[in-house]
Amino acid sequence: MIKNIFKSIQAYTQSFGLISKLKLWKYFFIPIVISIFTALIIGFLAYTLSDNIGYYIAKIWRWEWGKQTFMTISSFIGGLSIAVLGLILYKHIIMALSAPFMSPVSEKIEAHLSGVPLSQIHHHRDTTFSNQLWRGIRINVRNLGKELLFTIPILLLSFIPVINIFTTVLLFLIQAYYAGFGNMDYTLERHFKYNESLIFVKQNKGLALGNGIVFMLFLMIPVIGVILVLPFSVTAASIGTVARINENSQISNNKTKL
């Protein structure tokens, strides 16, 4: 898995050159607008709600001794909870709504890397705008549920001093995995049905995690992060996913010949 993580991260080094070479920037205009608009809404909600959540958490502690310490911890947990939940919602919203715009990008990248004509790749799994949107929504709603299932217990553990250092790292990795999952599916939807795609990602967790780690790091860059995160992460995911699909195909062909 470690090898796949580094392969997936390395794919980002090819992203800018490939986007420019294939003239893909125009496909990212609407997804970038979606990304900025979603980030602004979630950022505003996080700013207005974080103090309130910290205040209500602090009310649990009814004793005077240690109250200030608990209030400090509560404010931290409130802010962390809003930030984590905000990031979860942000990435699933933009990946779901951007699916119909990202699929053509993935197609062009696959055609370039494999040398197969674009028309042939498109025919491989011919889907409409609405099909791609529904697939994106379905995948991301499923991933959102899974992510919340893991995230909420970990957030509760964040109340425990020292342990919250490890829970922060764990939360980052969980978010990264599901971000990479969503980016990979723009390619997988042409090759696999829904359940087959789930199996593929489970078998290639490193690719999803590596892609998602850089995705999450992009979001830490003010302003520029929400603008560039989709172009670079989707391109990198397409590069890595196409390579793995081709590798699996070659292995299957060799086994057939034997």
From TrEMBL:
GO BP terms: cysteine biosynthetic process; sulfate assimilation
One GO term describing the cellular component: plasma membrane
Spans traversing the lipid bilayer: 27-49, 69-90, 148-178, 213-234
Segment forming the signal sequence: none
GO molecular function: high-affinity sulfate:proton symporter activity
Source species: Aureibaculum algae
Compartment(s): Membrane
UniProt-recorded name of the protein: EI24 domain-containing protein
Pfam family, one: EI24
